[in-house]
Structure formats: structure tokens, C-alpha cells
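Final report, section 2: Outcomes. Of the targets proposed, Cell division protein FtsX is the one most frequently requested by collaborating groups, and we therefore present its record in full.
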Amino acid sequence: MRLALVLGEVGQGLRRNLSMVVSVVLVTFISLTFVGTAILLQAQINQMKSYWYDRAQVAVYFCTDFSSVGTCNQTAATPEQVAAVEAQLDSATLAPFIDAYYFEDRDQAFENFQTQFEGNAIASLVTPELMTEAYWVNLVDPTQSQILADALSGLAGVESVVDQRSYLDQIFDILNASSFTAIGIAALMLVAAALLIATTIRLSAFSRRRELGIMRLVGASNRFIQTPFVIEGVVAALIGSILAAGAVVAIVEFFVQGYLSQTLPQTSFVGLDDALLVVPVLLGVGALLAALSANVAISRYLRV
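The predicted structure is given below as C-alpha cells.
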């Protein structure tokens, strides 16, 4: 009987404040969609770091006739200097840190450049003579690239030793900034949702002030009076949470897996399993946010 009465009060409150309930649903939906997107974006960044950092190479660039940095003096590296670098790579000092390496001469560098920039006007401006010869090195542990740089940077004929991870760091810094921005927007939207839920509950209580007065006179406890209002907020927020969870799953399924993974097959992306792991988080955050906001709002109202 008490449960039926509570549920009846919940249904009555939702019908009386339908427009405010819709507002709560929409704000919760938008805010939690940002939360889910931010979580998946951070997961994607971590996954890409693991994927690309393990594949990042160290390039040992040799001097050309146009180089004037490092040990270069506008003189191309000689075969003897190239052989000296190879000897260092095979030495007992560096060999334990190296998984594999290969030499790229000017013709191979030119061919790779043309493939990479096919259709770009810059491709017609480059000739093999302008390309740089290099050793491309895969390390057993990519984080130990500084060992290679310290050992080879000062050798004659070496222009520079470049760790590709330095380029990746710039990209991941931008992605991290985007993730933090999404988290900030999500936090603001959650605050807005909490305030809107509290306002909705207070308006609902005000519209039923006569009924509440009667319930107090007949001895109803504050917890019994508060419960329907808390459930109202939770129901509205859960609807928004379910919509947000559906949106996050749809984004991963149709955009990330359906488009990005097909367009960039060489990159690892988050999948449906990752999206499904976020769903309970969104439902839990939505329900907890609504319960706390509604409970605080109705408690303060009943004390007035």
C-alpha cells in the first residue's frame, strides 16, 4: 500500500511538471554524453599511445651536401662513415637495445616520399639528390631512445638522431587538451543538471504544498514525504542517462568503428566493448547525481 502510494505520487509529480522533466532529461542526456565521450577519448588516447609508441622508430640521419648541423659541414656522409654507424649499431653496447634496423638510401627515401605525398604539388619539387639517407631503428624498449642518441649523435657524418615519439607527443598533447576540454564542459553540464533537478523538485513540492501539509498533519515522516520527489528526479535523470548511453554506443559503433576504422585501418580504435563498459558509469552517475540533488532540494524545502 505504501509502495503504491509512493509510486502514485511519483507519477503525479512527473505529469504536473512534464516540461521541467523534459528539461532535466535533455540536460542530463547532453552532459552525460560529454562525460562518456571524454572517457572514451581518454581511453582512445591511451590505446593510441600504446599502439604507436611501440612502433615508433629512431631515425639516424646522415649528412648531405646541404647540411650544416651536427657534425656536417655541407659534405655528404661517406660510405666509411655510414659503415661506422652500422658497426656501432651491431656493437655489444647498442645491440641489446635494438630489435631491428634497416638502411634507407636516397632512392628509397625518394620513392617513399613520392608515395606519401602522391597528388601533392610538393612531390614534383623533390629529387633523389635532396633526400637524406638514414638508418631506421626499432628499439626493444622505445623509451630508451636517448641511449641511441648519446651513442651516435657525435659520430662523423651523422646529422641528427630523431626519435619519432617526439612528433607523437605533440599530437597526443592536442588530443589530451581536447579530452580535458570535454571533461570541463561535462562538469559544467553536470552542475547545470544538478541545479535543474533541484529546481524541478522544489517546484514540484511547491505545487503539492497542500498535500504535503495534510501528510504532515496525519503523521507522515519526512522520509516518506521525500521519497517520491527523489524517485522523480532519479527517473528523469535515468531516462537522460539511457539516452546518453545509447548515443555513446552509437558513436562508437557507427562513427568510430563504421567510419574511422575503415578510413584509418592502420590505427587501433576503441570498440563496442569499451563503449559498453562506459554505460554502467553513465547510469550510475545520472542516478547518483539526481538522488543527491533531489534529496538536498526537498530536505531544504521541508525545513522551510
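Residues 2-53+169-299 form one domain.
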